[in-house]
Amino acid sequence: MSNIVIVGVGGQGTLLASRILGRAATDLGYDVKVSEVHGMSQRGGSVITYVKYGEKVFSPIVEDCGADILLAFEELEAYRSLNYLKEGGKLVVNAQETDPMPVITGAAKYPENILEKIEKKGIEMTAVDALSAAREAGSEKAVNVVLIGVLAAHSDISKEAFIDAINKTVPEKFLEINLKAFELGFNLGSNK
What per-residue confidence (pLDDT) applies to 11? Predict the structure, then answer.
């Protein structure tokens, strides 16, 4: 059984990422449960998605200390969600800051040195610049698929299964950019 928690901010493409992962696992014959927990997703609020796959999955929810991998689309969401990561689990994080609404309105400040704070906790972390890779692929919106590529490099699901899932999930007009984004992400993840 594998438990993956995907966290981000509304509009970052976390739901597409979870669908690609779920499709890849389903196509390999795993029982898959995907559960999406929306915060204020339309307004840039937190979005959490649970993806569980294995021989038989009974619950779609990943409990605290239950995630094998925490995939975070930005630093603060990674830090807020560390409670999901099990002992020995891996954090894959986009080294990017996305201001939440309290920071945008001036009611709060974005915390400093988040990645350093996570490192001090002794968590196995792969931090990547997914935004630069997405730009290289041809669209900033492909950050989500770059991160799926990084995740794939740390997953028990084959690279080919992910590529097949992208082909089946992403609309044709965005396919080339997303396949390139996945490849760039996979290479980033393989080097860390």
Answer: 80
CA 94 → CA 14, 27, 132, distances in Å?
A: 12, 27, 10
Q: In terms of Cα–Cα distance, which of 19, 39, 40, 22 is closest to 30?
A: 22
Task: Give the number of domains in the chain.
Answer: 1
List of E strands, 73-185: 85-94, 124-128
pTM confidence score: 0.94
**Shortest CA distance to 146 belongs to which of 10, 58, 25, 14?**
14
Q: What CATH number should be reported for the domain holding residue 130?
A: 3.40.920.10
Report DSSP state, residue 110: P
In sequence order, the 6+-apart residues with CB closer than 8 A to the CB of 26 are: 32, 53
DSSP designation for 62: P
Which residues form the domain of 101? 2-190
Report pLDDT digits (tens) over 118-158.
999 999 999 999 999 999 999 999 999 999 999 999 999 99
